[in-house]
Design goal:
Blueprint: H1 2-17, H2 23-37, H3 63-85, H4 90-112, H5 116-125, H6 127-137, H7 143-172, H8 177-180, H9 190-207, H10 216-223, H11 226-248, H12 256-278, H13 283-303, H14 307-338, H15 349-352, H16 354-367, H17 374-389, H18 393-416, H19 432-447
Length: 457
């Protein structure tokens, strides 16, 4: 486990000292080597369920796919950022790459931590590089406002979790995941236990984000540079789902008083954010709200606490991470050429860039869960487990799926079809770098069709 963490840490000084000529090439190759090495986490977990065990870090079938996704994303973020960062001064380029690498190191440590306090520290520490990336390299003046939103939402959710973990430490004497799974759940009075459970979950529901505490996410996505949007959509949101799965193994089954309102809000939020997507004109806002909608399904899958619910949530998190990251990449390639994110101004791309339209089509179909992609598998597994829990949920999940198909096709048709606007006189062709970036998002997604048990936990 330390092998990957130390390799990632050593990339930070490398970004700061290497000659300008080789900066991007070396960082890209180095991060690809780390990504390929991370495939070893998908090894056999027979026996204890843990592998690469150390005193503070280990990998199990739940954290392995998320770890590999985190490592896989760094080279893709470097590829995506190269276009707009080349115009910046060299010192800014170095700082930017160092921050991306630092963020990856913190995320790897968070996903592999076996001590809940170490996990909490890393969970909160990921906020710092994200905040700097959004507030320094964001696209518009609103970026400071977005930074304030993300800071206060995350910290407000996170501080009660720290108190809950300290209560757990006091009652049971340990925060190690190895030991906690073997101990009886903590004994508190019923009202205190409900409060403790709610504080444990609230931080993760804000990070996920659940409808109602989701307003920081669209702001952060719209203001962030492309790498910020990619890491937010693909990995940082998944920290919330992963934290919930981890805490569920510590708690006793949740009481109905807590679980019913949360599942109802999550399912209702899917429909609400889906309908918000239907009236968006900003490409990035639409993709950001679609993330909130998909994460609502993940939250409800985890909250019903069945093995199928957990497996479906994990499949959904991985496949959504790759799909939404690819969508942000494609939105960024259009933005870099037209300097507009408005779907009203950027139309008819199909005639100008036909191959890009093919990428848009594949990614959009993945977003609306076309069979046999893992996106569909995740949605079906969660919906089946929800239907087994309560047959009424089929109305909400079915409606949400229908709305998802509507807004994804709306995004595809609006940006790619129709006449080319008169103000677009010429368009630079898409570079090999950008084609490589999108294909490296979609290739794992297509290969996972062949072996979906890798990401089912």
């Amino acid at each position: 486990m330390l092998k990957i963490i130390i390799l990632s840490m050593m990339l930070v000084p490398l970004c700061l000292i290497i000659s300008a000529k080789w900066l991007w090439t070396t960082c890209l190759i180095y991060s690809f080597i780390i990504a390929i090495m991370s495939f070893m986490y998908m090894a056999d977990f027979s026996g204890t369920g843990w592998a690469f065990v150390g005193p503070y870090t280990a990998v199990d079938p739940v954290s392995a796919p998320l770890l590999t996704l985190t490592c896989w994303l760094l080279p893709l973020m470097i590829l995506a950022s190269q276009g707009h960062m080349m115009k910046e001064p060299l010192s800014h380029q170095r700082t930017y790459l160092a921050l991306l690498t630092l963020l990856q190191t913190l995320l790897i440590t968070a996903f592999s931590a076996t001590n809940l306090l170490l996990f909490y520290v890393m969970f909160e520490a990921t906020l710092i590089p994200t905040l700097i990336i959004i507030t320094r390299w964001g696209n518009q003046m609103e970026r400071l406002n977005a930074g304030t939103h993300i800071l206060f939402y995350t910290l407000t959710g996170g501080i009660p979790l720290l108190v809950a973990l300290l209560v757990l430490q006091t009652k049971l004497g340990t925060l190690s995941l190895y030991v906690l799974q073997l101990l009886d759940p903590i004994s508190l009075t019923s009202s205190t236990h409900k409060l403790w459970t709610a504080t444990c979950l609230f931080a993760f529901l804000v990070k996920l984000p659940m409808y109602g505490v989701h307003l920081w996410l669209p702001k952060a996505h719209v203001e962030a540079p492309v790498a910020g949007s990619m890491i937010l959509a693909a990995v940082l949101l998944k920290l919330g789902g992963y934290g919930m799965i981890r805490m569920m193994s510590v708690m006793e089954p949740l009481s109905k008083d807590i679980i019913y309102p949360l599942i109802i809000i999550s399912l209702w939020g899917m429909i609400m954010t889906g309908t918000i997507c239907l009236r968006q004109t900003d490409t990035k806002l639409l993709i950001a709200y679609s993330s909130v909608s998909h994460m609502g399904l993940v939250a409800s899958g985890v909250l019903i606490q069945t093995p199928w619910g957990f497996a479906g949530a994990l499949i959904m998190m991985i496949s959504h991470g790759l799909t939404s990251s690819a969508l942000f990449c494609l939105a960024n390639t259009a933005y870099e050429r037209t300097h507009s994110r408005s779907m009203m101004l950027v139309r008819g791309m199909h005639t100008l860039l036909p191959l890009v339209a093919a990428w848009w089509l594949i990614t959009s179909l993945a977003n609306l869960a076309l069979p046999p992609l893992p996106n569909l598998m995740g949605e079906l597994v969660i919906m089946t487990s929800l239907f087994g829990w309560s047959s009424w949920t089929i109305i909400l999940t079915g409606l949400a799926t229908l709305i998802t198909a509507c807004y994804t096709l709306y995004l595809l048709v609006t940006t790619q079809r129709g006449p080319v606007p008169s103000h677009i006189k010429s368009m630079e062709p898409m570079t090999t770098r950008e084609h490589l970036m999108v294909s490296l998002h979609l290739l794992p997604l297509l290969l996972l069709i062949l072996k979906p048990e890798l990401i089912s936990g």
